[in-house]
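User: Fold both of these, please.

Assistant: Here is the first one.
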Amino acid sequence: MTRKTRRLTLIGAALAVFGLATGLSLFALRDTIVFFYGPSEYAEKAPQPGTRLRIGGLVKAGTFVKEGGQTYRFAVTDTKHDVEVSYSGLLPDLFREGQGAVVEGAVGSDGIFRADSVLAKHDERYMPREVADALKKQGVWKEGEAMPETAAGAQKGVVK
């Protein structure tokens, strides 16, 4: 074997090992990767039942209903589209209509989003960066309006 052949064999083997490692890593992470959508993106893409997602927006006023026990139904909106959400469990203390929220769960076969976790804003000026970005993209959040300090800091990498 010549020197050039050995070098090419070594490079080929290294690329094969790297490809195998990358493939195994992606295979292992396939169930833990969760995509974030705003309600309008959710409506456009119409994900298949069982798909795990995060949806962020505002809790639409007048849609919050307690169905009994610890089961709740409400809609998350960006003022253009609404996503109906069903959640069983304890809601965060600061969860209420008209406030920012991020729900994580899966799309049900009936089209209702079944959330297994609900995140609410933590004070009067905070909104999750993903929700603020989605609202800006939809034109709901105007740049002239005061952006919450913690969300602005999070976008610049500053944590307060």
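And the second sequence with its predicted structure:
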Amino acid sequence: MIILKNTDEKPTITRCEGTDSTFQALTVELDEDLQARYGAQMDFFGRYNHASDVKNAVYACVDDAPAGCGCFKPFSDGTVEMKRVFVRKELRGRGIARAVMRALEAWARELGYQSAVLETGILQPEAIRLYEAAGYKRIPNYPPYENVKESVCYQKTL
């Protein structure tokens, strides 16, 4: 468990690539969380969650301790797909995920992208609340999630 010295401290966001060791360690924790929620269904989802080839990733630290992460990949002309957004369970509810999303969206805009899509699961109500509060609108599930009842997809104009 991470003990925060100052719970009012804003997270520090660091840009990196998917090969960064801090980012990778956080995604291991994300995968453990998803495995606990979805069990055997992760055999399907896991194949779409690799991020080692990602060029645009971030991680957030609070009190110099890794707290959360996220990344994006090109999806189509002018659109990125947000992936691997995660905050350690004991640090949730402190605005870290919002800071990660804002950083990813700003970076995508800097690179000329106009919109973002993402997929999340129905067993992640905190993620759904985050995305909807951030202005993402529900869209029909895009491939490869189009016939997956556990998936919900969103889009936002950047």
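Residues 12-157 form a domain with the Aminopeptidase fold (CATH 3.40.630.30).
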